[in-house]
Design a protein that fits this description.
Number of strands: 9
Order of helices and strands: EHEHEHEHEHEHEHEEHHHHH
Shape: globular
Structural class: alpha/beta
Helix content: 25-40%
Number of helices: 12
Distance between the termini: 28 Å
Length: 318
């Protein structure tokens, strides 16, 4: 928020880019390889943002071509992915942005999910305006001045208020509560998906129009459309505990991996590899940019990255 392939092992294992209103809930879909006698199989959850797709593409390639596994990918939204992981319908989530309730339920209480370690990428959600607008109106970068610009940021979809553009309703967001609790004259408008949100922001940027958007780093678009963060009230531990009363910024989040608990214990080389999988923001953005901007198939992007970064991924192998 996020691949040296020749051909996919099977079409069902192909990584699918999502463009709809969040991924479908596929928690009932198990891997087609799950019951293949004696097969070495892994099922990975893939979320709808391109950074998560980059993680899965590279992990899938290396599991298949270096460790001899057959890999299935299943499209699951953020919260349903935890249910699927707990049930063993998927073996791993490679990029989680923080779900305290699910962590408590499945990791601490039920112990059906095990931590898989840091991904190596630090995520941050915030509100952003295009840098060309921030340079013209420097005070817009303080939330206290946002109402001053509501008219400039109004759209046909925002009902006479300024527009705060969000992506998929399935993403982690406090935006509706923030708008209400900070008394802002804005309306949250969902684009429907990361891809649709990117299209809107690119169009605004092409026309040099102002916009205010929920966005996150790392994300490849920042290299193409420079954006400046709007400072919200500082984040303090517990300030977002009550979803209805949130009035503070989003935290900085070291992104985490999670494994099904049984898979973590009995998944052999695959489980060890996924625990070891750890790369940088720059690595992820490199693959993400190839997928999203250069329109490479995820497998091809992963192959290109793997070919030029052997010193990085060799450390992940058991």
């Amino acid at each position: 928020m996020r691949v040296r392939v020749t051909t996919a092992v099977a079409s069902a294992a192909a990584l699918t880019l999502l463009t709809g209103c969040g991924a479908a809930d596929m928690t009932k879909q198990a891997s087609p390889f799950a019951h293949a006698k004696g097969a070495k199989t892994v099922t990975l959850s893939v979320q709808s943002w391109v950074g998560a797709q980059a993680n899965v593409a590279v992990a899938q390639y290396l599991l298949e071509h270096e460790l001899g596994y057959r890999v299935d990918t299943v499209q699951v939204d953020e919260v349903p992915a935890w249910d699927a992981l707990s049930q063993g319908r998927v073996d791993a989530i490679l990029e989680d942005w923080g779900h305290p309730e699910q962590e408590q339920r499945y990791v601490e209480d039920k112990k059906t999910i095990a931590p898989g370690g840091d991904l190596g990428v630090t995520g941050h959600i915030g509100w952003f305006v295009p840098t060309y607008f921030a340079k013209k109106h420097p005070d817009v970068t303080n939330w206290k001045n946002l109402n001053k610009y509501a008219d400039l940021l109004r759209t046909a979809e925002s009902g006479g208020k300024g527009q705060l553009l969000d992506g998929s309703p399935s993403y982690v967001t406090n935006d509706k509560a923030l708008v209400k609790n900070l008394n802002l004259d804005y309306q949250v408008v969902f684009a429907g998906s990361e891809a649709a949100q990117i299209t809107q922001m690119q169009q605004f940027a092409k026309e040099k129009k102002p916009f205010l958007s929920y966005w996150y780093t790392p994300q490849w678009l920042m290299e193409k459309v420079p954006m400046t963060e709007v400072k919200l009230p500082p984040y303090e531990e517990g300030c977002d505990a009550d979803p209805e009363k949130v009035d503070c910024a989003y935290p900085v989040t070291p992104l985490q991996k999670y494994l099904n608990a049984d898979f973590a214990k009995k998944g052999g080389d695959a489980a060890e590899f996924l625990k070891n999988f750890k790369w940088t923001t720059e690595d992820q953005n490199e693959v993400s940019l190839m997928i999203a901007e250069k329109k490479m198939r995820p497998q091809v992007a992963a192959e290109k990255w793997v070919d030029s970064h052997e010193s990085v991924w060799k450390k992940w192998l058991p």
